[in-house]
Amino acid sequence: MTTLHILNASPSTATQLKSCLRVVSIGDGIVLCGEAVQALRPGSAAAEQLLACQQTYHLYALQEDVQARAIDTTMVSVTLLDYPAFVALCVDYARVNSWT
Q: Which DSSP helix (H) or strand (E) runs through 5?
C-alpha cells in the first residue's frame, strides 16, 4: 500500500522530514506545504536529504507556498500542486499520513 506523507513544519525547527524519510517506502509520496517547503531551498541540509533518497518517493509541494517564499525549485525534482490537485492526490494514495 502506498502512503502520501504530508509535512507542514520547517525542517530547521522540526524533525518531521527526518522521521518521514526513515519510513518512506518505494512508491510513496511526500507533500511539502506551509513552512515545510523550506526543505526545497537549494543548498540546505533538508534539500540534500531529499536528494539523497529521491528515487524512493514522489515529491510534491504546494505551489502557493513555494511562490510565497520565493523558493527556486529547479535543483529538486518536485511537482508543484494547486489545492484541487492536492485534494485529488490524496484520493490517489491508499493512505494519507499527516506529520504534525
A: strand 3-7
The structure's pTM equals 0.93
Q: Are 24 and 5 in contact (CB under 8 A)?
A: yes
For domain 3-99, give the CATH number: 3.40.1260.10
Res 66: pLDDT: 97
3-state class (DSSP) for residue 79: strand
pLDDT tens for each residue of 63-86: 999 999 999 998 888 999 999 999
Residues 56, 44: Cα–Cα separation, whole Å: 20
Residue-range domain boundaries for the chain? 3-99
